[in-house]
Amino acid sequence: MVAPAVALPAISSPVWDSELLRRYDTRGPRYTSYPTALAFHEGFGPDALSEALARSNASGRPLSLYVHVPFCRKICFYCGCNKIATKNTALAEPYLSRLDREMVLAARHLDTSRPVEQLHWGGGTPTFLTLAQMGDLIDRLDARFGLSSSPERDYAIEIDPREADVFTLRHLQSLGFNRVSLGVQDLDPQVQQAINRVQPRQLTETLMEEAHRLGFRSLNLDLIYGLPRQTAQSFARTLEQVIELNPARLSVFNYAHMPERFPPQRRIQEAELPSADEKLAMLQATIALLTDAGYVHIGMDHFARPDDSLALAQRQGTLTRNFQGYSSHAQCDLLGLGVSAISRIDDVYAQNPTDMTRYADALDAGSLPTQRGLRLTQDDLIRRSVIERLMCDMRLDMAAVGARFGIDAPAYFAAALARLAPAERDGLIEWQGDTLVVTQGGRLLIRHLAMAFDARLPHDAPNAARRYSRIV
After folding, report:
1. What residues does the Radical SAM core domain cover (predicted)?
2. What is the DSSP code string of 95-137?
């Protein structure tokens, strides 16, 4: 049963308290899923996904499709994505064929009359593909699932401005995309050189001007703070230039330096990384400059103009989170296609292999390439809902939780609420009747607050969260 949407009070900008931020700046999940991917196991395979796809048809929920395109012409040193470095676009042809095979296998279990409300191409660099290859991929998706022409659809693609031009944008529009996300990271030439991503502002500006002219509904820019050679002053200059470009959305990520997990990061000189205090100053400047410019701080690292669909969804209580971050399209079943892609179907998560050979071998053998996953328990479903609402609404109506799941919510979450007692004493949360409200001072620490409800995170182990990035 899905609770009706309830309009929420407008969310104010967070209050800055450096001492509190330092004290609570531990490591923790980003909660693009609950349970997180660390809970997935290899006992979950293709048959389990097939069964979930079939079960999901009874819901009649619309579909969301994610397509992973792993190819990049150059490796950015900060990157933690699953990618293959090559300049040979012909290498994409066998991959596209296998993507089509995966679509065919998945579509056998789906009612393909369900509308595809959301489509997202990520990577890697989706615009690595030639125009013809992009057209071919859209045709295959349409043939297998039936794509939408509704003006309310959310069809987005990630673009590297170094590898796209105005002709690319016009082609993407003709294919049905209505939202683009441009990777920028930083506009300072010294920072760009340190991360192996030289990208003059003019490239980004030209594409944005053309996207506005063509009528793309929403433009997102990705920035990263905490990169080598950045300072609070230099990042503020980047932000000022970005504000002039007037994107509808901004994602401003905290760089997580984890070279033991992501080999390209070993090319970064650790001595050039900003200090923890400098990173806090960058975050403070980010929030101050963007809110002064009229952006709404949606949560964590997302900002949007007040009339953007993300801000509207948050005000209406319908905002959600998925593996691409915050989303305005709630209640979709997400099917991930391609190497490393993750699906969220019905009550399961399913992930494809991160290794291209293993992905290809499964499809060549006629099997869905599911390598690992998880079917959620009733407790998982309850906690997933609670964590998602807390992170999206910045509040949690315990009475509504109890009514939805038929539980005594305060008793059910007694341990979680006890873990939140210090945060309440520090003014990060407060109770308004039966509703737990995240204060302005607590919004920057929303990941810490959500962790209290995570039953799969060993709360008593000091190094339990070492595989996660820092919260601030």
Report:
1. 57-290
2. HHHHHHHHHHHHHTTS-TTS-EEEEEEEES-GGGS-HHHHHHH
